Amino acid sequence: MLSVDDVTFSYVAGAPVLADIDFKVASGEVVAIVGRNGAGKSTLLRLLNGLFQPESGAIIVAGNATSDTPVHILARSIGTVFQAPEQQIFNPRVRDEIAFGPKQLGLTGATLEARIAEVLERIGLASEADAHPLDLDQSARRMVAIGSVLAMQPPILLLDEAQRGLDKTAITRLSTIIETEKARGTAVILVCHDMDFVARQADRVLGLARGRLAANLPTKAFFTDKALTASIGVEVPDVLALSEALALPPTLTPAAFADAYMARERT
Amino acid sequence: MALLEVHDLAFRFPRAEKLVLDGVSFSVERGERVAILSPNAGGKTTLARWLAGLLPDGVLKAERGHVSMDGKDWTEWHIAERSSAIQYVGQVPSQQMTGCAFTVFEEIAFGPCNLALPEAEVRARVDEAMTVCNLRHLVDRDPFTLSGGEQQRLSIAAALAMKPQVLILDEPTSNLDPESRDDLLAQLELLPGELTIVVLEVALRPSLALADRFLLLDEGRIAVDGPAIDVLTHPRCIETLGMTAITEAGRRIQNAGGWAEGRPLPLTLADALQTLQVPDAVR
Amino acid sequence: MASGSKQEAGKQSLLFTPGESLLHKANPLTSLVIMLWMISAAAVLPTAGTAILVLAAITVSMATGVGKRSVKRLLITMTPIGVALIVVHGLLIERPDQTDLGLVAISPDGLDYALKVFMRVAAMLMATLLFVTTTHPSEMLKALDQRGVPPGVGYLVASPLLLIEPFSDRAKAIRDAQRVRGLDLTGSWKARIIALPILLMPLITLALSDLDQRASILSGRAFRAFPRRTVINAPHDSTFQVWFRRILVAVAVLQLGIPLLWHF
Questions:
Q1: Domain map of chain A by residue range?
Q2: Is C139 a domain residue?
Q3: What span, in angstroms and rounded, lies between the C-alpha atoms of A230 and A236?
Q4: Cβ within 8 Å of residue A124, ≥6 positions away
Q5: Which of A17, A87, A148 shows the shortest C-beta gap to C181?
Q6: E strands present in chain C
Q7: Cβ contacts (< 8 Å) between B177 and chain A: which residues?
Q8: A257, A262, A266: best mutation site toward chain B, by most B Cβ within 10 Å?
Q9: ipTM of this predicted complex?
């Protein structure tokens, strides 16, 4: 679905921000990009959606090379939710904001209405369709922005710190959205600092360190490699640390931990 | 007399149907470290602005109730007195800059200069604030070119330079990456013990490091008030804010019958290590 | 985003160039008065006078080490103005002295007038450039504070200079966000004009909420609590500079006043 082949990028010639980046993301896969601030996560994101062009190497998004596809056309294949996306809202009604993307794709009439209704339901704002987005609280506004991307039904979805600052209800909703997208075969890419969220959502982790791809591993294998997580500068999820401290098999979620713990208690 | 007192505060924004705050009452004693937890639409930032005396502001008034400090209603305070008594640091670091300062030094000195303090006093205050917030190496930088974490430390330094008795922090760590967050938490540890700190948070984990008393602000009212264990395991808190991953693990074990009677649920990794059984073989 | 590149960009929004010249060391008010005097002189002098003024200002800017930057700005701004003036006054406006050159008719009077306006604008621009390249706005703010100018006035001077940077960052972020939602900014002019509100609406909304936000930040830091603020590292002033400014202001007033009296 997404293929990044040996990509290098620099803002200033001779000082690459990203070098030799090489990975693939398959349809229906949830992949997290992690790393310290300044490791190149934001840059990589902008390469994937075509806002930046690789200096060398190639990025193929759903069959289109980012180097010869305009950003707004690429948007049909790869939907991006930037950080604080509530700041991009410009329509006076929630419904219109959701409709913006699909309209760019040429959708009209009943198809458009059906698409809007479906998305409003998924973001939990069906009753607020005619509200002014600025009258909503911040997490609801963020959901509107996420919905405006979902409405384009891109085969690849990029979420940049979309969970940040959300409360339980909103995070649960976001998790459901990610799971539904995965089930529908969307390739989901999370840029995320919250390792508990990564541990729960991601199938695989790409770790960036100083502009290089230092890890490309299944989530559990990634988090159980102490030297690797330390060099990439991410914290280990609490539950995993706990399972290790108690000499249980490594677990990533509270449910898995409780099962492992109880299994031992019963023996 | 309590240092900061909120009495039956009710407030709605103009033209809004619903009250954001609907009879909030609590008080804060000198030197307390309090976390007010609230889900996204819970009225957190509005309450923070009331606590800090930024509301009422002429147009926006309370429906009923009031907030007072040292027994005096905020409306009776002169701006210079108020800003020397309490300081508020908001959520988005870049939006906490005054837009009046070309350097980090000027940003911190801005408030004390407005108080018309002697030059030597201003310098001493800036110096102290820069030390506490680890900003010395950035003294001549343009505030708008700093990273989010640096800006957050800068806005706290600028607040501290006003020598307030109370510091209100609205989600101080929500826009920071884990490293900047840990740095900031470590800086906050260094603040003088007599400084009263009120943090408003949606996330449970960072607030555990900052406070010893917790309040749950739920639908415009204080639903629970007490130590971490009472508030974070309160059903309403769990319903609106969830649990830390550790608490959730503990509760699942409890539900499965693997938990001793009356033992409190763990909140942090350290709690869990103390309460969960480590087999002898590992010990 | 690499923090290094951003740090350099931060300095570019100001034209100020550090230096050790007399103009750099002068009290900002003195520099300001010199600028105002030059502008008033440019308003009344004949073309030869304004030309000398421009040359003098360029020479001074070279001597103070800000020449390169000032002259570059001067050329960037004045070239299109010059071309427009020549076309409009020299060629397009009908005048009695027009000489027909076949395709176009050229008017020496019109060219004279174009040159007069050109030199006047150039002199005023050069005066301003000389001021902004040698006076840091922060020093200007301090000088204003020191004179007891209400803090609000200083804020009006400083904040636009400081807020350009975050404002343009945000404009870029909004543009990126809309493009990745399928907004076409590469198409026809018509498409781009239609796209304008999509880019401007969030920017305006955010700017308005920023104003509110900033007002409360300023209030929290006791802004305008007292009519006077403390000035740290107040810019140096001297009796000589005080008298120099007074004389220059008097000269500027006379310069502007005498021709007025003459005509009536």
A1: 1-77+154-235, 94-150, 237-267
A2: yes
A3: 9
A4: A143, A173
A5: A148
A6: 99-100, 105-106
A7: 36-37, 193
A8: A257
A9: 0.88
